[in-house]
Design a protein that fits this description.
The chain is an all-alpha fold and 330 residues long. It is built from 15 helices and no strands. α2 packs across α6 (62-72), α8 (86-129) runs parallel beside α13 (253-276) and α12 (227-249) packs across α13 (253-276). The longest helix has 44 residues, at 86-129. The chain is elongated.
């Protein structure tokens, strides 16, 4: 068995013309395509990679195999207009429902991350120093409370650049489909566009955050935590939210769900630990969170929770969003 569950032809007649067998097996895909790259994207999604194309179908890569399939397929009006079989339609409906459930999970996790970015530092301060800290009588809470306003403003203002960057990347990828010679060429065209979209979005987010923080009165500037931690935390959170939304929009919610849930769980761990430390005999649980918050500020805990999932999602998104199969017609 080949990659992705692909079964190479074993019949002697099929071995004489394995492409004909593949054409029969995927006739609907080939007959309904408008260009060879669309067939290549469909074959890639079905587990037929360049190695399978070379060993089983005597082609140098998937794209050359798709070109032959596109040239040999016989198209009729029935082939183009006919509906999917009932079983395939049910399977597609189930997959769409699963993607929708994962998208809802990502949305809930993102809402929690945004809420924590706004009030998480205040919550930790209250758990560490008591409710009087939030009233400004003790502890660094006034600065912490003031630091939530720039973050909220920057995230709100960055929503429009995020939508524009996602739309620009999708449009560039769609334009690269007919212009690419093969799947590798499509990936080379798409990866830089993705990195440009990410860079532009992060630049816009930090551009909104800097004047919002600078506009704070001198007495309210969050000085207990180094300013660089606030910028890095906002950038990590923004990167995580942007990539998660981009992956969900292109039908790849699994990694987005895993990364956002991991970040949300890491964000929830410090306050849960402080609450557990109030139980009899569990006072020692307070020490790690208290030491980290006292040494680096509560923002450092948010930074540590967001950076690893955001970087992991970026590493995953670059190759995943460079596949032609995620940019074809849906």
């Amino acid at each position: 068995m080949g990659e992705g569950g692909h079964n190479p032809p074993t019949d002697p007649h099929a071995q004489a013309d394995p492409v004909k067998v593949l054409l029969t097996r995927h006739h609907r895909l080939c007959a309904g395509s408008v260009d060879p790259l669309e067939i290549a994207a469909g074959l890639e999604a079905r587990g037929i990679c360049d190695r399978v194309a070379s060993t089983d179908y005597r082609h140098r890569d998937v794209f050359s195999l798709a070109e032959e399939l596109h040239a040999r397929v016989e198209r009729t009006e029935t082939d183009v207009a006919c509906a999917r079989p009932p079983t395939e339609g049910k399977r597609q409906t189930a997959c769409a429902a699963l993607r929708g459930a994962r998208g809802a999970t990502v949305t809930l996790a993102c809402l929690w991350l945004i809420a924590h970015a706004l009030v998480g530092d205040q919550l930790l301060t209250a758990l560490l120093h008591g409710h009087r800290a939030l009233a400004g009588r003790t502890g660094p809470a006034p600065a912490v409370l003031a630091g939530a306003a720039p973050t909220a403003l920057a995230l709100a203002c960055a929503a429009a650049p995020a939508a524009w960057c996602a739309h620009w990347f999708a449009a560039r990828a769609r334009r690269a489909l007919p212009a690419s010679r093969d799947l590798a060429d499509f990936g080379r065209r798409t990866r830089p566009a993705l990195l440009v979209a990410v860079t532009v979005f992060l630049g816009a987010l930090l551009a909104f955050l800097w004047p919002a923080r600078s506009a704070l009165p001198a007495g309210q500037a969050p000085g207990a935590t180094p300013p660089v931690l606030h910028y890095l935390t906002a950038a990590a959170l923004g990167l995580l939210l942007f990539l998660a939304g981009l992956l969900v929009a292109h039908g790849l919610p699994r990694a987005a769900v895993a990364a956002t849930l991991a970040a949300a769980a890491a964000q929830a761990l410090p306050p849960l630990t402080l609450l557990a430390a109030r139980l009899p005999g569990c006072e020692a649980l307070r020490w790690p969170v208290g030491w980290a918050a006292g040494a680096f500020g509560p923002t450092a805990l948010s930074l540590a929770a967001c950076v690893p999932p955001a970087l992991a999602l970026l590493v995953h998104a670059v190759p995943a969003l460079s596949r032609a199969s995620v940019h074809g017609p849906r």
